[in-house]
Amino acid sequence: MSITIEQFLSFSESEQLQTVKELNDTGNVKTIIDVLTSVGIENLSIPLLGELGRAYNNNGNEKEAIKVLESIDEEYRDAVWYYRCAYAYGAIALDNNESYTSDTMKQMLRLVDQGVRLAQEKNLDDIKSYCFEVIDMCYMQMDFEQCEAEYPELCKAYSNYVAEKKKNREGVPRHRTITIEAIQSTDDMWTINEPMYWTINIYGSYDDYLESGKPFTLEQRYLNAICWYFAEVNNGGHHQFLYNSTGIVWEDALAGLRLFKMDELADNLQSVIDYFGGSVPFDRAERWTILQDWENEEELFDFLDKKDDVVYEYDGIYEDTFVHEHPELFVFDGTYTIPE
Length: 340
What we know:
Elements: H1 5-10, H2 13-25, H3 29-39, H4 46-58, H5 62-70, H6 79-95, H7 103-121, H8 125-137, H9 144-150, H10 152-170, E1 172-178, H11 180-184, H12 189-199, H13 206-212, H14 218-243, H15 250-259, H16 263-275, H17 284-294, H18 298-312, H19 319-325, E2 332-338
Antiparallel strand pairs: 1-2
Helix pairs in contact: 2-4, 3-4, 4-5, 4-6, 5-6, 6-7, 6-8, 7-8, 9-10, 12-14, 14-15, 14-18, 15-16, 16-18
């Protein structure tokens, strides 16, 4: 999605904000930054300043995010503001491997603490979870004993968050039988992929990933990888797909797109992998390092924007075509665990 400054200025304030939110949601952060900085930061409303800070965070330019966010007067700083600012400081601390006692980590924790307080007051559970995810991001640099002394209420709330996540991971068993007839009668690939989605582990090592996929056919594993690929790219582009835990499935997604005859998308993803030298690490920390090495290069984001657009504008066949042609490869009769 592209937009000119003239088009943007012709919109009402509510239309401007909605447009920028949609651009942020689809990962078009460069467009946001180009348009809003051309309009002039001094001319932006408080919500647009917040979205610009969000875009800088998503673009890996956390220092600019902090500048923009801190230009917002204190009276307008809500829970979302504290989360976005905390994320920026946390990302900087992570990139620089800063210790718990560093000024950056201290500022991150102050912001998270206030963000959680405000989120709790307004019953914004999603924002509260986002704040806790900043602590997750900096987990290896945390000194929880010291943190509990400095922020007892925050650490208590974080412990409850961790316990709830563990409970959700443990979940409850669900039995499903997916027959050839059921596969042929639905176009909803989620119903076919659900056992793989909840069973295949994308959050551990690559060996964990392969081991957790053993109960399924290779084609089922490919379907799961493709579903993750679409979910991430449609939400935040190829950068998000590779940056998040989902990047572990890139090879299966590529092989699946090729096998399922979605060649335009396979070629597109292959070109992304080729851009990084023909392969991308399965280990998330190693992918982070590669992406951070490229973060400040405008060329990377220009390239990925074009690759994102191929997915957004794709009008060819989808995975359901192959699944319907080969339903015997996607049958399932067993039990898997889902969150409560």
